[in-house]
Amino acid sequence: MKRWTVVAFPLFTLGAAALVRPDDRTPPPATHRVRMLQQGNQYKFDPAGLRIQPGDVVEFVNVSGFPHNVQFYPNRIPAGAKDVLNRAMAQRMGDVAGPMMMQPNAVYRISFAGAPQGTYDYFCLPHLALGMKATLIVGQPGGPGSTINDGEPTPAQVPARSGR
How many CA atoms lie within 13 A of 17 on its CB side? Predict the structure, then answer.
């Protein structure tokens, strides 16, 4: 009987561990889409204001009017965000600056895993003079992007996400 207990107990423990569910209170990261486009003589990000949760991913899609890129204002992002963005942005062409997207329907993904909460203002370098700017809020608004409005939506204009 003792041998059976020695063998059965570890098997029972492993089986019980397999039934334990991961923490259901933490939702999986969501993926959000921002279209980069030209409509007539207007160049824009659509939506121009987006609120996400820390850990979410944003996909920037090159729809029309390219080339486009995604570049964050270094002085209009939360403290500590620069290093996180530089690690998360593949093929950067500079500090917090994504590469030029030349092909239609090209997608550039940025994960905000580990990114500080706050307001992130960004622009498209080739179309900055034409007003192609936007605001991203990770979690709650805050930081230097919350106090400067240069054509981007203010944090109050960026709708809170529902359903998370």
Answer: 6
Q: Which amino acid is at 8?
A: A
Phi-psi region of 81 (alpha: psi -120 to 50; beta: other; left: phi over 0): alpha
- Could you read off the pLDDT of 89-111 as tens digits, one per residue? 999 999 999 999 999 999 999 99
Distance CA 156, CA 146 (A): 9
Report the distance separating Cα 71 and Cα 97, nearest Å.
Answer: 4
Helix, strand, coil percentages, rounded to 5, for the chain: 25, 30, 50
DSSP code at position 88: H
Domain boundaries, the chain: 29-157
Q: How far is CA 11 from CA 4, 7, 19, 81, in A?
A: 11, 7, 13, 46
Residue 144 has pLDDT above 90, yes or no: no
Question: CATH number for the 29-157 domain, one of 2.60.40.420, 1.10.10.10, 1.10.3720.10, 2.40.440.10?
Answer: 2.60.40.420
